[in-house]
Amino acid sequence: MASHLFCGRVNLNILREAARKDLREFLDKCSGSKAIVWDEYLTGPFGLIAQYSLLKEHEVEKMFTLKGGRIPSASVKNIVFFVRPRLELMDIIAENVASEDKLQPRDFHILFVPRRGLLCEQRLKEKGVLNSFTNIDEYILDLIPYDGDLLSMESESSFRECYLENDQTSLYHAAKGLMTLQALYGTIPQIFGKGECARHVANMMLRMKREFAGSQTQILPVFDTLLLLDRNVDLLTPLATQLTYEGLIDEIFGITNGYVKLPPEKFAQKKQGEGGKELPTEPKKLQLNSAEELYAEIRDKNFNAVGAALSKKAKIISAAFEERHNAKTVGEIKQFVSQLPHMQAARSSLANHTSIAELIKDITTSEDFFDSLTVEQEFMTGVDTDKVSTYIEDCIAQKDPLIKILRLVCMQSVCNNGLKQKVLDYYKKEILQTYGYKHILTLKNLEKVGLLKPQSTMRNNYPTIRKTLKLWMEDANEQNPNDISYVYSGYAPLSVRLTQVLARPGWRSIEEVLKMLPGPHFEERQQVPTGLHKKRQPGENRTTLVFFLGGVTYAEIAALRFLSNMEDSGTEYIIAATKLINGTSWIKSLMDSPEENLP
User: Fold this and answer.
1) How far apart are CA 73 and CA 574, in angstroms?
2) Which phi and psi angles does 311 have, rounded to 5°?
3) 575: which strand partners?
4) How far is 155 from 176, CA to CA, in rounded Å?
5) 563 to each of 89, 306, 484, 507, 573, how far by Cα in Å?
6) Which locations, inside or outside the cell, does it occupy (predicted)?
7) Under CATH, what is the fold of the domain 256-266+283-365?
8) pTM (2 d.p.)
9) What CATH number belongs to 142-234+470-598?
């Protein structure tokens, strides 16, 4: 099931198994039959750790979604609530418990994820139900393995909390998650970081290490380096439209906990004589990870290179099926039959990805997509960033989705180190008059986090940063890339360029640029227990864990994988983040009342 977690440089299944073990131990505390009542947000992350079969083995007979009123009837001994520590959820739990049938007493338990909340327990006490619980515990699910080189905390509002609300809870969880990693994979000798949040996380890690100095694990370090990067060091990258296959799937359809839901009509299998058969109405749900051979091969390609890759794969599969005509002896037929399941899976996978590619192509070949991309690329290269964009004006006049407008205006602001006051005022006035004055709070939020701001008297540093770090490559090779800029067809993500320079030649070569970017940059060393220093073999790559505090995009992940696979890179990257994001989900997290935002 988790075969894709074994395949990378670091066996991330060790982390998954540790999380499963803790879950089994908690379930066994509640002896007897159980029903789990889920905080809906947690079902996706938990699905990456344990399937229903594991829960069933530990006497879980029913599962319900947490909602007001009475819990649906179930003849079980225990009711277990799996919830985040949120006060509004405590009110629902209190309602559930209070409306329970007194003639059928059951044991109640709460499992807080990822930490117990004292304020939550206080709320349950105020509601008069705290004493109804036999067990109140916490389940520390900080870093969830997504793929062989990818971990996410799935903390949905970490950027908002850190930069808007000044709440550093997610940073504490990040530090705890890194301590768990070190307990399983050994001490990380070198820590580099850039940004205020990175500094906080490093400080918390070092303090926790001192507090647990006596209980250091005697494990040979797997990671050589940890790089902590604040999202606000690079505000531009998430705003840009991702142009890798996986990035576009996320931009257009949204990938949630490794799954995507797609329009069903493209996947309807019509059989002969069923011309009038009704099309399915349920979205097609597909899991996306490297366990699927074809997906692993094409997900990080620029979308313009995907068609050729699918065509090549189709020829290979077709040739493999043709081999059946050459199978003459019993042994040859037997061998062909043994390969059949794999070949059929490959054919099904090809059909799915051909359909997805067609859906994406319908959008990427549209005039609207091309015009929007052209404006993005003009902003990134410094063209007309100091005046009102006629394209943005037209989009507002046509009442295009508000998030599209906000992404473009924020991109212009970031590339220009803020907008001239009259340009900013004009955009604000147009947005509020067209989409409603309720969005004034959203504009304030975007201003507060630095995405939308008036130009200061300081000069615009972006052109210097762009030139020094080669953030724009004029002739990006999309088919056979030789640089990370292929993931945005010309723009090299600033975050990944910083990672690349750190590995070689080192940050000392870009001191001036680092000072232009927000927050401190630093280096720390951790003492590795005696006798556990890594003896590197000639030609052996270093392993670096890059942790994005505030979220990472799939295009950045693709760029880091590209660096890992470069012949002379010398470094392999494992990626961790507080959340997997795209421009839309990121801006949405900063909106107030996003559910009523779009026309």
Assistant:
1) 45
2) -65, -45
3) 150, 546
4) 14
5) 43, 20, 7, 17, 8
6) Cytoplasmic vesicle, Autophagosome; Cytoplasmic vesicle, Clathrin-coated vesicle; Early endosome; Late endosome membrane
7) Syntaxin Binding Protein 1; Chain A, domain 2 (3.90.830)
8) 0.93
9) 3.40.50.1910
